[in-house]
Amino acid sequence: MARNDPQLKLRLTEELKDKIVEAAKANGRSVNSEIAYRLEESLLFEEMQQEAFAPLSDDYIKRELDWQPVDGDQPITRSEHLAITGVMLDQHFQQFGAEMITQIKKLLEKK
Fold it and tell me: Where is the Arc-like DNA binding domain (predicted)?
C-alpha cells in the first residue's frame, strides 16, 4: 500500500489487536497489510456467498416452481421458504460448492 492511500482510524480491543499482530507475524505481513488482507477476504467471501445463494431467493423459487400467484395468495411464508430452500440446496450444493472451491483456490494462488 502506498503512503497516499486513504487512512482509517480504527479502535480495537487489546485482545483483537494482539491476535492481528500474531497473525501478521505468522503470515509475514505488516499489521496494516494483515488487516487490509483480512478485510478484503471477508468482503470477497461475502460476495461469493451472495452469488452462490442468490438462486435461492423467493423470486427464484417461485420461478423455478412455476408458481403463479392467484387472487388472494399470500406471500410465501418463512417456513415454506426454508422447506423449499432445503430441497433446492440439495440440488444446487454440488454446483455452487464446486464453484466456491474453485474461487477460493484461485484466491489462494494469487497470494
Answer: 2-45
Reported confidence tier of residue 107, pLDDT bands at 50, 70, 90: confident
pLDDT at 54 over 80: no
Interhelix angle 14-27/31-53, rounded to 10 degrees, is 90
Domain ranges across the chain: 14-110
Q: Could you give the dihedral angle defined by the CA atoms of residues 62, 67, 68 and 74, in that order, rounded to the nearest 10 degrees?
A: -70
Per-residue pLDDT, averaged over 70-90, amounts to 68
CA distances from 85 to 43, 68, 97 (A): 24, 18, 16
Residue 8 and residue 92: Cα distance in Å, rounded? Answer: 40
